Amino acid sequence: MPPRSPQEMMAAVAANLQQRTGRSLSEWVELVNASGIDPLDQKAVRNWLKTQHGVPQNSQWEIAETAACAAGWVRPSVEGYIDSQYTGPKAHLRPLFDRLREIIEALGDDVRAEGRSTYTPFVRRRQFAAVAAASRARIEVGLRFTNPPASPRLSPAKAPGQATHKLSVSSLEEIDEEVAALLRESYEQNG
């Protein structure tokens, strides 16, 4: 079975919502609208769905996004998400992101970037790398390994994304052959 896109996965969640929760997606959206919670505040909607109704996590995300879209929210494009991560005091980190992206996307035709608000995941069969503007001074590169290579630059991690390890870069010079080799290893272990 080929990997499913996030849109395909969420469509499957929506299709099974009635069976899992006892309500259809449109019924959940009506309930959100009647709750008094701002439907554009997706985090608050997800929290309410979890704490008040015990809705499973993926279902929370689908309901919250659908309610927000019904209220006028438009999901940014991947490029829109990336642009929003590298503005203001983090704008000077964009060349680092661009260089990492160049290396990552050159690993294979099967690599795709996905949009998130605080980091950019890179996916093959599954997510193998994630790049985040962690502070005003550095970018964190999350890497997913099943068998981590020995490297003093790696530290154990649970973020960004689905990382098992991460490394930090704060200049273009730090994005060297070792970083490229670690990215390739993560890519190869997640195909």
Which key features would you list for this structure?
single chain; 191 residues; alpha+beta; 2 domains; 6-stranded antiparallel sheet; DUF5655
Short characterization:
The chain has 8 helices and 6 strands.
Number of domains: 2
What is the number of beta strands?
6
Cα end-to-end separation: 13 Å
Calculate Rg over CA atoms.
19 Å
Percentage of residues in helical conformation: 40-55%
Class computed from helices, strands and strand pairing: alpha+beta
- Proportion of strand residues: 5-15%
Low-confidence stretches: none
Main beta-sheet annotation? 6 strands, antiparallel
Chain-wise SSE layout:
Layout: H1 6-15, H2 17-21, H3 25-35, H4 42-53, H5 57-70, H6 78-85, H7 94-105, E1 112-113, E2 120-123, E3 127-133, E4 139-143, E5 155-156, E6 165-169, H8 177-189
Antiparallel strand pairs: 1-2, 2-3, 3-4, 4-6, 5-6
Domain DUF5655: 82-190
Organism: Ornatilinea apprima
Protein name: DUF5655 domain-containing protein
Q: Could you walk me through the main structural features you see in this protein, from its secondary elements to its overall organization?
A:
Helix content is 45%, strand content 13%. The protein is α+β, with helices and mostly antiparallel strands. The longest helix is centred in the first third of the chain and has 14 residues, at 57-70. The chain has two domains: 6-70, no CATH class; 78-189. It has helices at residues 6-15, 17-21, 25-35, 42-53, 57-70, 78-85, 94-105, 177-189; strands spanning 112-113, 120-123, 127-133, 139-143, 155-156, 165-169. It contains eight helices and six strands, in the order H-H-H-H-H-H-H-E-E-E-E-E-E-H. The model has no long low-confidence stretch (mean pLDDT 92). Strands 1-2-3-4-6-5 form a six-stranded antiparallel sheet.
